[in-house]
Amino acid sequence: MTVFLLITLNFFLPRAMPGDPISALVDNGGSARVQNDALRAEVARHYGLDRPLVTQYAGYLGDLATGDFGQSIRYNRPVGELVGERLPWTLLLILSGVGLAVVIGWAGGVHSGWRRGQPIDRWLMTIFLGIKGFPVFFVASLALVVFAVKLRWFPLVGASTPFAGAASPWTRMVDIVHHLVLPAVVLSLDFAASQYLVMRAGVVGELGADYLLLGRAKGLRPRRLKYHYAARNALLPAVTLAALHVSFGVTAAILVETVFAYQGMGRLVFEAVAFQDYPTLQACFLVLTLMVVTVNFLADASYRRLDPRTAAP
User: What distances in angstroms separate CA 47 from CA 17, 50, 138, 208, 302, one per listed residue?
Assistant: First the structure.
């Protein structure tokens, strides 16, 4: 039922925007062939846009059942091909950004919570809250100007160097990572502060726990108590937040990919919105939504391993 509702929303939400794809092609400098009214009607008929909305919806469900996402109005290509080309780049960006945010936020949160009230705690709190105060679009633009334009440490645009496919696998991997670093770091900064705050609060809540007092009485090393016991018991809210950040990463990726001209799903969505490309929007929203649902399911499944007390009796 949930999946059917998502599929239905994916169909009707793009059509709630004002205007239509044929007009958007003209307004955004598209092909001049749709300037003529007769040809406009022919193009609309070709893409099925002249049919009643209910008929379009029924056709959409039928095509989706066979794995057909339709034809892109903007690119005049099968949408499945576009999604197949762009999705791996977005997955790489989101997973790298969220993974980096988890590492930074969890490490900082554990260390800060364990030393609550000490100078290191106050410094870390100031740094992470300061980072959180800047919108991701501003940070991305600033990073692009400083590290790509001024210092030239990283590429200015793209996910890889054109025609790099002919290079060796190692050279291609290095090139992809070189293009990925700046967007992934920017994306991670948007989430690291939240991970830090949640992990810090969890560790602070565990400081007076009986098992820590018992561990100290037994002479266990502080490092073991901090990471193996306190941090592990504070993980559940942080895991939930990490799953949510994958969801939020879809939105953030649209901004980051637009700034860095990173050829992923986020940029494809941005371009599809500008041209009101219904088939492309439908496919992108569906794929990204299913990705979010899958990540949340995996997060729920991991709770049992992290804390057996959450398992159903």
Answer: 18, 8, 38, 65, 44
Distant-in-sequence, close-in-space partners of 10: CB < 8 Å, separation ≥ 6: 281, 282, 285, 286, 289
Amino acid at 245: H
| Tokens coding 296 | 């949340």
Rounded (5°) CA angle 242-89-20:
100
CA gap 90, 71 in Å, rounded: 21
| Residue where the block lists tokens 């003529």 | 36
For residues 35 and 47, give the distance between their C-alpha atoms in angstroms, rounded to a whole number.
16
What are the residue boundaries of the structural domains of the chain, listed by start?
2-65, 85-310
What are the CA-CA distances from residue 198 to residues 53, 109, 158, 194, 195 (Å)? 46, 7, 34, 6, 5
Locate 27 and state its tokens. 């307004």
- Please, how many CA atoms are within 13 Å of residue 171, restricted to the half-sphere of its CB? 8
CB 189 within 8 A of CB 292: no
Render 60-98 in DSSP notation, one character per residue. Answer: HHHHHHTT---B-TTT-SBHHHHHHHHHHHHHHHHHHHH
* Local mean pLDDT, 10-residue blocks, the chain (313 residues): 79 79 63 60 76 85 84 85 89 90 88 84 87 83 89 84 72 87 88 87 77 72 73 75 78 85 86 85 85 77 63 49
Global pTM value: 0.81
Nearest to 147 by CA among 182, 192, 106, 115: 182
Query: Domain 85-310 classified CATH 1.10.3090.10?
Result: no
